[in-house]
Backbone:
């Protein structure tokens, strides 16, 4: 274990089985190479990123990642081995699902403008015109990437705001064996009124009042949202990205926001992070810049422990693990 887990959480993992010997040595930073931590006896590693020198882990069979995405492992030698890699997919559904609607509601009801007025102690005479908002009830929301996060966004949209839900997935085949919390999301995929493939993204964008990005970063999803898709959107439409910055063409987005192709954007991820100080998105009235914290709540490690404990039980009894990353797809 190379994350900073509390003693209580470590005890929960040790309680899974007396066969387990759990050792924690916390890395200072998620980007640190953990190769030097290893004794050579490790069969399982829980980490942000696997060791770069896999020769130091000759007995390694399985790596459980602390996060859902694996785009930071592009080119990593682990993909050329038979070591199993699993992610923390599923533990983010509740916090990021809620955060998505925090962004949507803030943009729809002009909260950023209100905050700026409050900072100036200004009560505008034309407040009804200036701050007239968008009601969500009955609107159409499109969700790009209908995984655990997208399914929770869909559930909240359908049953919380009576919205029409559209969804896009790379494939309509049955999803992989994923971790999910009871009562969270849309496990059977019954909520979307219509499904779209990646080649139909422009058509989907045209139909939406709100477009939410929750897809992984891959070669296929890079700049999935560009000029064509932004021009196709309605002038009152909102774009929310709680996935990866690479999904959006930043230059096209800035133009779209300046010229009124869309009404606003809530961005929790950017192609370059931290977002450079001089970037135009920092200073736009119709943008919320979030520093990639949509999943940050006090329950993250608790949920991560529950998932890891379940996977440990599966590993020890020979059952299939949850959230296995296919080496050929690498997401």
Residues:
């Amino acid at each position: 274990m190379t994350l900073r887990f509390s003693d209580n959480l470590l005890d929960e993992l040790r309680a899974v089985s007396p066969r387990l010997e759990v050792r924690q040595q916390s890395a200072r930073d998620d980007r640190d190479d953990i190769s030097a931590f290893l004794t050579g006896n490790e069969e399982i590693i829980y980490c942000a990123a696997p060791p770069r020198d896999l020769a130091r882990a000759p007995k390694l069979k399985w790596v459980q990642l602390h996060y859902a995405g694996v785009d930071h492992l592009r080119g990593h030698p682990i993909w050329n081995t038979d070591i199993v890699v699993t992610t923390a997919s599923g533990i983010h559904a509740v916090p990021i699902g809620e955060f998505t609607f925090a962004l949507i509601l803030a943009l729809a009801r002009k909260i950023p403008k209100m905050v700026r007025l409050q900072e100036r102690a200004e009560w505008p005479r034309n407040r009804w015109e200036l701050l007239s908002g968008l009601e969500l009830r009955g609107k159409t929301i499109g969700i790009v990437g209908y995984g655990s996060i997208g399914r929770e966004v869909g559930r909240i949209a359908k049953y919380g705001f009576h919205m029409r839900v559209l969804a896009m997935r790379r494939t309509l085949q049955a999803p992989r064996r994923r971790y999910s919390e009871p009562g969270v999301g849309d496990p059977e995929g019954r909520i979307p009124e219509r499904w779209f493939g990646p080649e139909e993204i422009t058509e989907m964008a045209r139909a939406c009042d709100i477009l939410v990005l929750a897809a992984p970063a891959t070669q296929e999803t890079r700049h999935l949202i560009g000029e064509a898709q932004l021009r196709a959107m309605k002038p009152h439409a909102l774009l929310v990205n709680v996935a990866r910055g690479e999904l959006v063409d930043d230059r096209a987005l800035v133009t779209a926001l300046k010229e009124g192709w869309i009404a606003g954007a809530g961005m929790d991820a950017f192609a370059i992070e931290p977002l450079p100080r001089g970037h135009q998105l920092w200073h736009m009235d119709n943008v919320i810049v979030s520093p990639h914290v949509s999943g940050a709540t006090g329950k993250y490690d608790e949920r991560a422990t529950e998932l890891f404990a379940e996977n440990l039980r599966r590993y020890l009894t020979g059952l299939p693990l949850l959230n296995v990353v296919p080496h050929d797809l690498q997401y």
In short: The chain has two domains: 7-91+297-317, 93-289. Residues 300-317 form the longest helix (18 residues). Strands lie at 44-47, 62-65, 84-86, 140-144, 164-168, 194-196, 210-213, 238-241, 264-267, 287-289. The two ends are 22 Å apart (CA to CA).
